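Researcher: Quick test of sequence recovery. Tokens follow.
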């Protein structure tokens, strides 16, 4: 084939080629400049793909069958994913539900073991390698069930200070005992409410609270600010904390000239109520025990206190200083007890064995080493019992001895001899029926007149006041004034009947805090008794 000769390029074509070459060089330079400005971008060059419309390149569009087939494949893949996801979700939900009911809803009884939940093999939990902790040397890889330990909850410490009781919650489970007081017109005045926490083995039907009428010892209730209430347990012993609330009246508050802040609930025990209380020097006795107030309600005029265990006794609204406000009677002078039964006593020494103790020898002016101090051939003790002086010589009586005096009781017309060193006084300032004679060392002899209105003989009268007495242990004799007398075996008590028609029985009773030093002196006073019945 003959070669075609190149046609000469026209000037217009030459200009077009040069223009295209110049644009190509410019784009090349621009591309190199962008590479220099962005050195850290990816080394892969951006490739621009230009597509031609389908009608120009002759590519036919996919048919509807092919489109549906592609959609079916995509749906099939989605279904496979759902089939795998749904069982996994069901397993997880079942595991959570089982854990909730087995662990949370079913508490383990005390003393039993916590068993591990059963695990299904096909639903074993997925564990990642980074979460697995390899066992240490000598450590078992099997987890042992933990023993259930009942750990009591710690009680919160009170904010205001240690030892203060925490008020229990008042709810419908508490057992309440209520007592209400009314005035003469039937109008409610005050009330008391005892709220008890239920305990096992306590019969709450036997526990009562009721209005208390202060019949005995009214002086103990003179300063209370309301009606007192008595709690009786009847053998029940609650130990749980309870709450006692008592209201008070405004009128009583005004009569005591107090404000609500001055009031508390006071407790008076049966033991305190049974005792006899008298005025004493110094601090006032604690008769009412003041309870700590848990709540002071001025609007309803009530006070509440927590009781750490309920005790029998009397409760009332009282002033804080009620113990100082109680007017107690004066303390009576101590009266030696008249005891007809013989008691073992310790005698003071009698060195010369003359029936006078060494202390009595000094009292009578005789020698504790010589039985017959005045050398009249009579024993010192025998002379004293015969109403003679053991130190003044033969024939000198005790009434003639200046160391003795006959003490007169003008109210009851009797008299006795007594050492001048002794002091005599009435037990009751308003009556001379009981007289006490004391020595300097605090030994005492009580002379008491006991009523004998039925004019009984001495032995019958003694059995009427002391049925348990044994008359065979007592000694009967006649005094120097021809009065019938009985004495105890230890010679410390004497009973004297002056006549069958006498309205009184004389009782001489000797008491000593330690050794008995004046046994013969007591007998001398009994022998010296003189009595004239009053007309």
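Model:
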């Amino acid at each position: 084939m003959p070669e075609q000769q190149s046609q000469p390029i026209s000037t217009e074509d030459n200009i077009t080629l040069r223009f295209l070459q110049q644009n190509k060089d410019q784009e090349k330079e621009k591309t190199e400049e962008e590479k220099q400005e962005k050195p850290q971008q990816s080394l892969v060059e951006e490739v621009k793909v230009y597509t031609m419309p389908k009608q120009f390149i002759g590519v036919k569009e996919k048919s509807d069958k092919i489109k549906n087939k592609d959609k079916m494949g995509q749906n099939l893949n989605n279904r496979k994913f759902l089939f795998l996801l749904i069982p996994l979700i069901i397993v997880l939900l079942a595991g959570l539900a089982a854990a909730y009911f087995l662990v949370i809803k079913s508490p383990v009884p005390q003393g039993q073991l916590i068993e591990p939940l059963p695990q299904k093999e096909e639903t074993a939990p997925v564990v990642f390698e980074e979460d697995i902790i390899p066992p240490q040397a000598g450590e078992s890889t099997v987890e042992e069930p933990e023993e259930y330990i009942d750990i009591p909850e710690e009680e919160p410490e009170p904010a205001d200070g240690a030892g203060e009781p925490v008020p229990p919650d008042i709810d419908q489970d508490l057992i309440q005992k209520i007592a209400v007081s009314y005035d003469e017109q039937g109008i409610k005045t005050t009330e008391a409410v005892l709220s008890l926490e239920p305990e096992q083995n306590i019969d709450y039907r036997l526990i009562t609270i009721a209005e208390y009428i202060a019949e005995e010892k009214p002086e103990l209730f003179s300063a209370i600010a309301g009606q007192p209430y008595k709690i009786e347990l009847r053998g029940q012993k609650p130990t749980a904390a309870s709450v006692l609330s008592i209201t008070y009246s405004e009128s009583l508050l005004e009569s005591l000239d107090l404000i609500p802040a001055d009031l508390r609930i006071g407790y008076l025990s049966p033991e305190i109520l049974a005792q006899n209380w008298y005025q004493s020097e110094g601090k006032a006795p604690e008769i009412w025990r003041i309870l700590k107030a848990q709540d002071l309600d001025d609007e309803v005029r009530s006070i509440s206190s927590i009781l750490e265990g309920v005790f029998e006794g009397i409760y009332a609204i009282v002033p804080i200083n009620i113990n100082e406000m109680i007017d107690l009677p004066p303390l009576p002078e101590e009266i030696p007890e008249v005891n007809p039964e013989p008691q073992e006593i310790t005698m003071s020494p009698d060195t010369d064995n003359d029936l006078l103790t060494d202390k009595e020898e000094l009292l009578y002016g005789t020698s504790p080493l010589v039985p017959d101090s005045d050398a009249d051939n009579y024993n010192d003790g025998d002379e004293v019992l015969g109403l003679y002086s053991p130190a003044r010589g033969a024939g000198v009586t005790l009434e003639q001895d200046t160391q003795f005096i006959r003490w007169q009781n003008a109210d009851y017309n009797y008299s006795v001899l007594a050492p001048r060193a002794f002091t005599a006084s009435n037990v009751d300032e308003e009556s001379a029926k009981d007289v006490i004679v004391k020595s300097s060392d605090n030994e005492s002899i009580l002379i008491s007149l006991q009523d004998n209105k039925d004019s009984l003989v001495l032995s019958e009268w003694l059995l009427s006041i002391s049925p348990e007495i044994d008359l065979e242990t007592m000694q009967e004799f006649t005094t120097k004034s021809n009065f019938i007398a009985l004495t105890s075996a230890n010679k410390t008590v004497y009973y004297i009947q002056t006549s069958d028609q006498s309205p009184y029985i004389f009782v001489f009773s000797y008491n000593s805090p330690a050794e008995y030093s004046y046994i013969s002196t007591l007998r001398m006073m009994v022998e010296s008794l003189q009595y004239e019945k009053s007309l």
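The longest helix spans residues 64-104.
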